[in-house]
Design brief:
135 residues; alpha/beta; Signal recognition particle alu RNA binding heterodimer, srp9/1; 2,3-Dihydroxybiphenyl 1,2-Dioxygenase, domain 1; 2 domains; four-stranded mixed sheet; 3 helices; 7 strands; 24% helix; 33% strand
Amino acid sequence: MRLDGFGIFVEDMGKMIRFYRDVLGFEIKEGEDTSNVYLVKDGTLFLLYGRKDFEKMTSRKYQYVMGLNGHSEIALYVDTFEEVDAEYARAIENGAVSVLAPETEPWGQRTCYIADPEGNLIEIGSFGRAFEERG
């Protein structure tokens, strides 16, 4: 068994498509009225799935974390510390919610956190070198 990807169950598909496409640069071709966004970002499957559609498909009701939450995070990597600061500023200017402004952590990573419109945490970080050279 191998990891194929990850998904987020969303309430407002149009708003979430606009955020991930326009603010974070994910390539999303589906319309805002779709119930399922299925794409690959940097070799990883990323899925936005409408909550109501998933409940209908599985014939069950679910409890969802609401508002700003620490249930999970999406981690995005950039190659330089300067890019962390620039991407954070760009995301905030375009409507992301600030959770933690960029700072350099004791372990050498520069990191920041924003939230998408439904409160999911997104980390933007760097160890100051190319992705393939990190760690």
